Amino acid sequence: MSEFDGGFSLDANGGFSVERNSQRQAGARQSLTPVTIKQLNDADQPIPDGEFRIHNVNLSMISFVGIVRKVVPLANLIVITIEDGTGSVEVRKWIDDQKMSAAEEVERFEAYLSKYVYVGGALKMFQEKKSVQNATVTLIEDHNQVLYHNLSAIANHLKAQGIVPSKSEKLLFVSADDKGPKAEIERVFDIYKKHSPSMPEGVPISFVAQALDISPSVVMEYSRELSETGRVYLGTEDTCFIAIDV
Question: Which end of the chain has fewer CB within 10 Å, C or N?
Fold first, then answer.
């Protein structure tokens, strides 16, 4: 196993757990588990303030896709209601006025109404109600991302139950040897892998886009896919990623 600022290992959820010995918190665990909103709503919290759990899967840092149905601005945050056909959940986004004004933040998320978004964040209990906090919310521009996420959530659930997909089921996921878009996503990952050691806060999407002469939106799409499969994780900014197996 190679190392970068700590290490990584497969966890019981079927995803990656990352230990980062950085200034933010030594030994902090990060994992990103693809789920549906129903799984979030059905999850139990055996220990107060502990991790949520459902069907042998620990839910700490999670990801899901859904449609933005409501945006409600409050004093210091924005509450975004998202549903995916299995249920709905609130995402709480704190306003960082160092980056963007409250009005600009509200306008940004109101533009997402009735559109699909990808969300990554921490499942928490707030005032006896589940919500997603410390969240990244990005607009989905290719509907294939929704399908891919749902397949990832199913595969992760089956793995947690000890069910091994058949050969035909595995063919749902494109092989890394395939040509075309899959080859391009490997090029994106190669840039993250090459530059992560020299950019410990994360390799910017704009940097990758410039290096490969492709659009930042395409890089973001591939980065989300790499994140869901446990190959990269978010840096200190929403638009920076770090390769795990460097």
Answer: N
